[in-house]
DNA sequence: TGTATATGTAAGTATTTGCTTACGCAACTT
DNA sequence: AAGTTGCGTAAGCAAATACTTACATATACA
């Protein structure tokens, strides 16, 4: 429980269980028990993960009768993507040509804040 | 100091201070004190963050006299990028249009005028 | 040589995390 | 109405995290 302080996307995806949950519900909404069936940890633990994902906007819950369907809203991942993309130039050897091309265009179109020198 | 168990890249970049460190040294190596100058936390705290980043391969340290220059090795970010990229289809409306556009011109790239591809 | 500089690391601490079990409640089923 | 199902949440706990101060060590410099 504690406080739900700085729930940001980076922290949300830091946990492997949460990444798996995202992976599970990315394509289709699932109710909580169905999600929990895929893990060895308890249902309340999954419920808490869902709560965290909800708090940072990665999941929206739609109630349907007594079930609650969890739907992924992955727009927040763009924050991660944008952050990582700044550094693609430092490792993009293994990136496919279209991808890197697209990234370059994208980097051109958006005004990123740059790593600041002193 | 507990154990340095599952140091993975996702967890490494979950901390905002570590993201700032990466941002600082992405372009140029810096010694530890220079890095620490940019933060309000103590030098040992920075040293510990560097250690974590080193343990997951994001930073390599090169000793030079009594200084230790920290150099970013951001290849590990590709793991994050690849993971996020799986879900790009779920959030990249603006990205998607550009992407499909690029795919089109990539498919028959002699018939289209391109954006400023650098 | 002695001292300042650059740094690692240990020890201690407060907070956060990720889990558990226990319980409560609303919504279906019979 | 009574039981079952689906779920949230509280309480408790072990471990991890992010810091601090104190100290050790190696290098540079006078």
UniProtKB/TrEMBL annotation, chains A, B:
Keywords linked to the UniProt accession: DNA-binding
Domain of life: Bacteria
GO MF annotation terms: DNA binding; DNA-binding transcription factor activity
Pfam family, one: HTH_5
Residue stretches making up the HTH arsR-type domain: 1-92
The keyword Endoplasmic reticulum appears for this protein: no
InterPro entries: ArsR-like_HTH, HTH_ArsR_DNA-bd_dom, WH-like_DNA-bd_sf, WH_DNA-bd_sf
PANTHER family xrefs: SLL0088 PROTEIN (PTHR38600:SF2), TRANSCRIPTIONAL REGULATORY PROTEIN (PTHR38600)
Protein name (record): DNA-binding transcriptional regulator, ArsR family
Lineage: Bacteria, Pseudomonadati, Bacteroidota, Cytophagia, Cytophagales
């Amino acid at each position: 429980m504690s406080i739900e302080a700085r729930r940001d996307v980076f922290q949300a995806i830091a946990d492997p269980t949460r990444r798996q949950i995202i992976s599970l519900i990315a394509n289709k909404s699932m109710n909580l028990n169905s999600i929990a069936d895929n893990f060895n940890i308890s249902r309340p633990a999954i419920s808490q993960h869902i709560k965290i994902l909800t708090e940072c906007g990665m999941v929206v819950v739609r109630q349907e009768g007594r079930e609650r369907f969890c739907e992924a809203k992955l727009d927040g991942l763009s924050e991660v993507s944008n952050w990582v993309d700044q550094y693609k130039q430092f490792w993009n050897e293994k990136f496919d040509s279209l991808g890197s091309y697209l990234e370059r265009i994208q980097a051109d179109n958006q005004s990123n804040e740059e790593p600041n020198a002193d």
